[in-house]
């Protein structure tokens, strides 16, 4: 029996090196005791740094996770609840938390909020509401590899890249926006909007006021939508502070204009609270029609009632929520510094960043040529021989070969130190065995010399591992 085109087409993107790296990790995962030479997972933007804060709160508030209110069971009430408008108490707590993260400079109306099973569902639902199959959204590159699945796969919508480069720190510019718009027209694609992530995944940087203003000017002039995926808004650990698109809209008095209705925010608790398994996301839109349509569509991916109940209790504990955000940012900052410092000692630099759970790492000097083939060649060495699963820039549609996203918040400090040690040993031997030409690319790519040096450093590393175990 034949299957549907949707089931057999490959636009899901799971063949990308981003997902393949995860599969390789699954086959040989690092474990300090059981598999000390295994692959360390640095391709997963998970936040495991503040679980202790969540666990302490749970211990002090046993009712929240125990189907109870004031000691009385509410099991039956939660088991029957199925209203796709969501629990009012949870929506109130979530908009309050979103305001808190934005320094209370913006207020969100819970009536404009649609709950979804994570930002994955929120992004797809919005695309279903805003575009027809064959229409396009413009996205600045590099972008989150999951967007090929979330925005394109089931909706039939196309992504057209807004090309950003290292020459200006990957900033969005007016000419780059216009170029993408024209490129879409050349491909006969009607542009329905722009989607940005602020702070950016994979860059780990917040959008500047200048970029946000540019984006608003652009969507205003073209009469199109703007989706701002603000899933990392609570992870901003250094200045400049996070500025939400909603703040700029209000400051520029866009409230009574059409643009007000064409800006939509996506949020989730997967990163800021480190709960991707709970599947908690949301769409915030000023357009009533979008809110109504998205609410109906949310039937396909609701948040379970016990999750909503638990999190409404947690987030409406304002003291806890405020303290969590501050403490979590402090911990992210420390980790970020550890990774940046460690890589620097290996002669590797990162894009200067202030947010997120990862660094955008420049390994252009380790490529044997300025090509994506060389990037994948280096990536394979790093996965299979160095034992680190990181994400190559090409999986994020970066236009310059040699950039990699490296995550730092999904492991212990010891594991991060080991990862840094592995990369340092790799680079030491790499420098030793390969000569370079004037433009920084290695000339001597003799397979034998490389194999010899790898054997040496793999040996050295396992020796170090054994030493550590003692
Ligand atoms: C920019 C961005 N949007 C959406 C998602 C999906 O998040 P969720 O787990 O809430 O579906 C991610 C996850 O990595 C992301 O980085």
What does this structure look like?
The strands form 4 sheets. This protein has a 7-stranded mixed β-sheet, sandwiched between helices. It has a 4-stranded antiparallel β-sheet with strand order 11-12-15-14. Strands 1-13 form a two-stranded parallel sheet. The chain has helices spanning 5-8, 17-27, 51-60, 62-65, 75-80, 88-101, 118-130, 147-153, 174-186, 209-222, 245-251, 258-261, 288-297, 305-315, 318-345, 372-386, 413-433, 447-469, and strands at residues 40-41, 68-69, 72-73, 113-116, 136-140, 158-162, 191-197, 225-229, 263-268, 281-285, 349-350, 358-362, 388-389, 391-392, 403-407. It contains 18 helices and 15 strands. With 470 residues, it is of the alpha/beta class. It is 46% helix and 13% strand. Residues 435-470 have low confidence and may be disordered. The site of pyridoxal-5'-phosphate (PLP) has 14 residues, from α7.
Briefly summarize what is shown.
By secondary structure, this protein is α/β, with parallel strands linked by helices. It is built from 18 helices and 15 strands.
Helix content: 40-55%
- Please give the radius of gyration in angstroms: 23 Å
Number of helices: 18
The major sheet is characterized as: 7 strands, mixed
**Roughly how many Å apart are the termini?**
58 Å
Backbone structural class: alpha/beta
What do the pLDDT scores average to? 91
Shape field: globular
What binds here, in terms of ligands, is: pyridoxal-5'-phosphate
> Low-confidence spans: pLDDT under 50, at least 5 residues?
435-470
